[in-house]
Amino acid sequence: MQFKIGSLALKNQLVLAPMYRISDLPFRLLCRAQGAGLCFSEMINCEALIRNNKSNWCLAETIAEDFPLGMQLFGARIESMRKAAELLIEKKRFELLDLNLGCPSHNVLNQGAGAALLKRPERISEIISSWKDLGKPVTAKIRIAPNVLHSIKIAKTIERAGASALIVHGRTIQQENSGKIDFVAIKRIKKSLGIPVIGHGGIRGNAGFELMLEKTKCDAVMIGTAAIGNPGVFAEILGEKQIGRKEALAKYLELCNSLNFTLFGHVKQQVLRFLAGKENRELALRITKAKNLAELKECFK
Ligand SMILES: Cc1cc2nc3c(=O)[nH]c(=O)nc-3n(C[C@H](O)[C@H](O)[C@H](O)COP(=O)(O)O)c2cc1C
Fold first, then answer.
1. pTM confidence score
2. 3 state DSSP class of 142
């Protein structure tokens, strides 16, 4: 089923999550080919973009086929968030500007960014308001709080500030990225808003996808870890023929090559993710030892 974020029509209800060192350009293209209707970039550091940090700009790399794309930013200072968003809009094509309000990593929390902002609704409102006149629909990705009333308050703040959709991860900060999903909390947040809600957390396949839609009445579903090394999960959910992990890996390397995506350490980690499982242990070990792209390619000969 189609759904819309602002005026952006999406072909289905399947969304790839922003994942640090996972949701890169070649990986997003693979997920799209398997049916993902919307993809998000991994979180990009606003301050680093402003400092013109090369590897952070590399994370914002995109091409025409990488459509529709949500670019996710993290940061805490309003001026930097505004400036980074302006620079991104000036230099890159993308469709949605997403605010990270869920990252539980200490490094991000210590900057007052990610999930730390959930304690500061007025700051969230100021950041979203500062993005509103830039001409892109704004989205935000939150985690639930132990008390659902706090989450509803945050969700309403985000809507009032002008966001066009909300992504709700049904786990608390303490749960990080594992543990039970609170469908009731997602449902109550959805019910309290007029904007679309993307339900998120713990979806492994078609049964989980259907359950999320049924239990929360959300508008779409976001897939995270189930896609790592396994972009075929989108085709599986859609009931279509899915690509195997090894074939996906070969395609990933082809795409890295043709897109000149050569952040070696990053590509190496991605490759290892496609090779999860005992049967690939030997190959994975050889890859771990590769010191450059040439040595990495040698492992597959
Ligand atoms: C390796 C990894 C990197 C992640 N990076 C980000 C990120 O950059 N931005 C973000 O909002 N969430 C990030 N997350 C959280 C995921 O987007 C997602 O919310 C989480 O994995 C729960 O979804 P799941 O249960 O489908 O895996 C990351 C998760 C993992 C496992």
1. 0.97
2. strand
**What mean pLDDT comes out for the span 197-223?**
98
Residue 218 bears catalytic tag: no
Catalytic residue among 39, 103, 218, 256: 103
Ligand 1 center to 298 CA (angstroms)? 31
56: CATH: 3.20.20.70
Which protein residue's CA is at the shortest distance from atom 18 of ligand 1? Answer: 224
Domain limits at 93? 3-238
Pair 119, 67 in one domain: yes
40-60 average pLDDT score: 95
Residue nearest to atom 26 of ligand 1 (CA): 224
Q: If you count them, how many residues does the chain have?
A: 301
Radius of gyration (Cα) for the chain, nearest Å?
Answer: 19
**Of 175, 181, 185, nearest in space to 201 by CA:** 181
177 phi and psi angles, rounded to 5 deg: -115, 25
Question: Does residue 114's CB lie within 6 angstroms of at least one atom of ligand 1?
Answer: no
The candidate with the shortest Cα–Cα distance to 267, out of 231, 234, 292, 289, is 292
Q: Measured between alpha carbons, how far is 111 from 35 in angstroms, rounded to an integer?
A: 36
